[in-house]
Design goal:
Helix content: over 70%
Number of helices: 11
Radius of gyration: 21 Å
Number of strands: 0
Strand content: under 5%
Structural class: mainly alpha
Number of domains: 1
Amino acid sequence: MEDAINKPWRPIPSSRITRDQARMLQLFTMPFGMGMNYFLGAWEETALVYNLAWMYNDLGGGDNWIIRNIILGLALSQFNKGGMRVAAEIQGVQIPESSWWWLFITSMILATTFQAQDMKDQEGDRARGRRTAPLVIGDTAARWTIAVPVMAWSFVCPLFWGLNWVGYVLPVGVGALVSARFVMLRGFWADKKTWWLWTFWTAIIWFVPLFKHYGVFVRFARRFGLEFAIERQSSGLQ
């Protein structure tokens, strides 16, 4: 019922697949995913994610916004932890302590701000009886539970990496825009656009460590430019 109102384009509410078929597909792919991650060396994280998904979907963890945020924060930490471990093993390097703390911080960001999604989904959540932030504590209070953490994390993340003022510009600027929109603009379309902006803000936060060493961007630009030049030259020879 919830997705039929909030997200009718998804496969199940749009009748492209049934619930039973989706369940069978999930059960079929889970062993394959576990096997692949065992081979890569991240089976522990995969097992925990599977259990968190079970808690979210089957035990009703996704119906309470506080429990839902905690589950998603933990799940995100395992996605990032597994990828970080695999990458470190391939490169043959040790994971520095700062990376583990950054893993904790980014997981806490999601755990404290993911109710941003609830603002645009109130109609469907109300129909299902989900206990989301705006339906439990009220629309206005829920908006402040997003605006305040977003602004706080926008300063904490550059501070953690010891960036100069340039490193604060994007996270603080976009974070301020997200916070202001949630507090000042209301309605489905306004909240939906602010939700999109929140996802853009999280992407910026994930890139914050790269601002510690600007040479990363220089190397990327040079490599991209070189590959583009080679591609153009190859096209010209054909």
